[in-house]
Write a structure and sequence with these properties.
single chain, elongated, 5-stranded mixed beta sheet, 5-stranded antiparallel beta sheet, alpha+beta, 5 helices, 2 domains, 23% helix, Alpha-Beta Plaits
Amino acid sequence: MSAVTVSTDLLERLAREEHRPGSEHGSLAFLVRSSDVEAAATALHAASLRFISIDEEGEELEEWSNTGETYTPNWVSDVYLSPDGPWISTDTKGTLFPRMVRAMIDVLVEELRRRGVDAHVEVPDPGLPMTETWPPPAAPQGVSEPDGPRAWVIKRTVRRVTTRGRMWWDDEYFRNDGQWTRDLWQALMFPDMPPSEWVAAIIADRPADADEKHRVGPIMSVYTRVDGYERPGAKPPPEVRRDD
């Protein structure tokens, strides 16, 4: 496991706020010092995509569980590059929410360790320039369009009920191994419309009781964006679903 440390100044600041609410102000930024700048920036980027869903109580909300009753960050920046390392800024209305920040630290440490990055996490000095932005990973294969890369995929919808009783429609995409996935980036992609015989064969392979058991919607070819910024968020994982 990689060695990841967190600035004691940051942890002490959180402790002060927990004991004296309102004593600390300002939206936080995070800087990662590491000898592997590219891997550190990649981990920071992955963490930043998750930061936007962490609420004031420190819970990482998903689309189906975000009721809007708790506060989440207004904005999380791109990853910026500096001589000290990659860094990002957050906008939390100038307020430090200790549970939110602790959850953000946990997420960042998790993403760094997942990539085997030895690193130190700290709050950057004020005034770091925002002039050089780290470019995120390239999108999967797709055709360049004015609004971003696109590709054809084979899609279906599956209606399920979460364990909280909420009805949910999952978008699922056909993979090259014949299975279905909720992750668009794992989908089998085509630069042109998929052959009609392919789609017909997939439709013919549907279970006879699909409509009754899972309420599977129509299977169709769709032309969709496939860039990183439009990547759909995760839908409810299996453990919080129940099939009808």
